[in-house]
Write a structure and sequence with these properties.
Length: 83
């Protein structure tokens, strides 16, 4: 009898993105805080590639981070659109 196919495992970047969203929305990451790649990697034991993928355009377009060419990503300042 053939094995039932297992659902694919979530990508590491999807897991990092979900966790970043949770940290931002629960205010564990202060609004407006510059998000240091190296600090996040060390604090949450995330790899560089999944973290960079999580900061990609789709993540930013979901209003979960702000990005400045000079300072890089930061947690968004919360407004009523998050209520």
């Amino acid at each position: 009898m053939p094995k039932t196919p297992q659902p694919p495992k979530p990508r590491a970047s999807d897991q990092v993105e979900a966790e970043l969203r949770r940290l931002i929305l629960t205010l564990e990451l202060e609004p407006g805080l510059a998000l240091s790649e190296s600090a996040l990697m060390k604090r949450y034991n995330w790899g560089r590639t999944p973290l960079r993928e999580a900061f990609s355009t789709p993540f930013r377009s979901r209003a979960c981070s702000e990005h400045s060419p000079s300072t890089g990503p930061s947690s968004p300042r919360l407004t009523c659109r998050f209520c």
